[in-house]
Amino acid sequence: MARFEKHIFICGNLRPLGHPRGCCDPEQKAELQKAFKRSLAERGLKGRVRANQSGCLDQCEHGPNLVVYPEGVWYGHVTLVDVEEIVESHIVGGKPVERLVLTEECINTASCEHKPKKVSGT
After folding, report:
1. What's the whole-number mean pLDDT along residues 73-92?
2. Cys-Cys link to 76, which of 38, 62, 95, 111 (CB 3.0-4.6 A)?
3. Strands of the 49-54 sheet, one edge to the other
4. Are 114 and 61 in contact (CB under 8 A)?
5. CB 93 within 8 A of CB 33
6. What single DSSP character describes residue 122?
7. Within 13 A of 88's CA, how many CA atoms are on the CB side?
8. Which of 65, 62, 61, 51 is nearest to 12 (CA)?
């Protein structure tokens, strides 16, 4: 089998209700992953592009979130409505959906504006 052209990792981490960092898949239904798999299959991309449910991608404040490789494009606040646009624009057309792309300043940083502020002295 040939290598995948692209790989989509969709966060499926579960955190308790009310957790300050949020939760990407609170009902554990993997709906985003299933929607991506359907969309890819409809376009004949099964076997060429893989959509995997992942564990925590540590971008909880931007959830639901996902990353597309090999480009390393991170998406945040993704909904089921966004799946077709991401597949058509990015996966098929090669153009990331800018309105959903996380900025470099927010990926794997302690100081992202979206992260809850730590309270000192507690």
Report:
1. 96
2. 62
3. 49-54, 6-11, 66-69, 73-75
4. yes
5. no
6. -
7. 5
8. 65
The alpha carbon of residue 10 and the mean position of all alpha carbons in its chain are separated, in whole angstroms, by 5
Which residues neighbour 4 within 8 Å (Cβ) at sequence distance 6 or greater?
47, 48, 49, 50
Give the pLDDT confidence score for residue 79 in this predicted structure. Answer: 95
Taking only the tens place, the pLDDT of each residue in 38-63 is: 999 999 999 999 999 998 898 888 88
Collapse the DSSP code of 31 into the 3-class scheme (helix H, G, I; strand E, B; otherwise coil) and give the result.
Answer: helix
67 forms beta bridges with 9, 74
pLDDT of 3 strictly over 90: no
In this predicted structure, which of 20-24, 34-38, 61-65, 115-119 has the lowest mean pLDDT?
115-119
- For tokens 């969709």, what's the residue? 10
Sign of CA pseudo-dihedral 24, 93, 101, 71: positive
